[in-house]
Design a protein that fits this description.
It contains 4 helices and 7 strands; from the N terminus they run βααβββαβαββ. With 145 residues, it is of the alpha+beta class. The chain has a 7-stranded mixed β-sheet with strand order 1-2-3-4-5-7-6, sandwiched between helices. β3 and β4 form a beta hairpin. The structure holds coenzyme A. Coenzyme A (COA) binds next to β4, α3 and α4.
C-alpha cells in the first residue's frame, strides 16, 4: 500500500520530536544532524525545514529552498525505525506535489554523497538523473517537474 505523508513546519510544538529522529550509526555521516540543520535555517531566510508526518507521528525531516525556477532538497532523512516502509518515497512525492503547485518551478534538484549507494538507488527509482558533483563534492541529481 502506498504511504501518505504530510510536510509541516517545524515549530516549538514538534521541535523535540524532530530533534529526536535518529539514523543508523553507519548513516550518521551521510546527512547533517537535524538540530544543526534547524540552527542553520535560522540564519538562512531561504531554508524551509519541514517535519515529515505519517498521521500524527513524525517519521523524518527534510529541508529545501526555492531559487527562481528551481527547488533544491538539500537535507533529507527518515528515522531508522521507519526506513524501508515507503515513507521516503512518499515524502519526496509530497514535496514534488507541493513544488508542482507552485507557479514557475521547473526543476527539483537533490544532493547526496556520491558514496551513498542507497540514496543513489532511492533517487534513481524516483526518476532523478545525476548531473555531476558540486563544489563540495556532493552529487547533484535533477528531475523535471
Ligand atoms: C534514503 C532514505 C531517505 C530512504 O528512505 P526510506 O523511507 O527508507 O525509503 P523507501 O522505503 O521509501 O524506499 C524507496 C526505495 O528506495 C530504495 N532504497 C531505500 N533504502 C535503500 C537502501 N538502504 N538500500 C538500497 N535501496 C534503498 C529502494 O529502491 C526502495 O524501494 P523498495 O523498498 O521497494 O526496494 C533513508 O534511507 C535515509 O534516511 N537514509 C539516511 C540519510 C540519507 O542518506 N539521506 C539522503 C541523502 S541527503
Amino acid at each position: 500500500m502506498a504511504r501518505t505523508v504530510k510536510l509541516r513546519k517545524v515549530t516549538a510544538d514538534n521541535l523535540q520530536a524532530v530533534a529526536g529522529l535518529e539514523l543508523a550509526p553507519d548513516q550518521a555521516d551521510l546527512v547533517a544532524d537535524n538540530v544543526y540543520s534547524l540552527a542553520e535555517s535560522k540564519f538562512d531566510p531561504d531554508a524551509r525545514p519541514r517535519a515529515i508526518y505519517a498521521g500524527k507521528r513524525i517519521v523524518g525531516f527534510l529541508m529545501y529552498e526555492i531559487d527562481g525556477c528551481k527547488a533544491t532538497i538539500y537535507r533529507f532523512m527518515i528515522d531508522r525505525r521507519h526506513q524501508r516502509r515507503g515513507y521516503g518515497r512518499a515524502a519526496v512525492s509530497e514535496a514534488l506535489r507541493k513544488f508542482r503547485s507552485m507557479r514557475g518551478l521547473r526543476t527539483v534538484a537533490i544532493s547526496y554523497m556520491p558514496a551513498n549507494r542507497p540514496a543513489r538507488q532511492f533517487y534513481a527509482s524516483l526518476g532523478f538523473r545525476e548531473v555531476g558533483l558540486d563544489t563540495d563534492g556532493e552529487m547533484i541529481a535533477k528531475l523535471k517537474l
